[in-house]
C-alpha cells in the first residue's frame, strides 16, 4: 500500500528482534561454510540484478516514491519507508563497505573501529543514478571477490549484530543482504 505519511521508525537496527538476528547470523555462517564462494558470488549478482531490473521498469517519479512496506524477516523498522532508489543506494553503500574490508580481512590485516549500522542510511533524494551505481558496484565487487582466494583465510571483523565474521562470512552477508533488499524493492513496486 502506498503511504506518503512518514512512519515513526526506530533507530537503525532497532526493528530486528534478537531471535531474528540470531537466525540470520546462523544463515550467514551456514552459507559461508557450505556454499562455494563462486556460488555465493553468482547469488550476490543475481539478487542485485533483479533489484536493478525492477528499478529500470519504473518511471523516475515511481522510483523516488517512498512506500511503507510491512516488515518482513531481515528488514529493519527504520528501512520500511524507503523508495526503490533509496533501497538501491543502501545496497551501494553497504556493498561498497564490504568490498573495502574483504581484501583487508583476506590478507590478515586487523581492522580497527566499528561497523556502524547507522552509516548505511540512504538519502530520500536518491534518484535513478543509483541504478548505474549499483550495476557498476556489482561488477567491481564480483571482480574483487573472484581475484581473492579462500575467503575463509585471514582475520575477522566484528559485526554489531552477527558477531565475529571472516571475509567468507562478510561475503555471505552481502549476498543475504542483497536478497533482503531485492524483496523490499519488489514489495515497493507492487504497492505503487
From TrEMBL:
Gene3D superfamilies: dinb family like domain
Entries under InterPro entries matching the protein: DinB/YfiT-like (IPR034660), DUF1569 (IPR011463)
Superkingdom of origin: Bacteria
Name of the featured protein: DinB superfamily protein
Protein species of origin: Halochromatium glycolicum
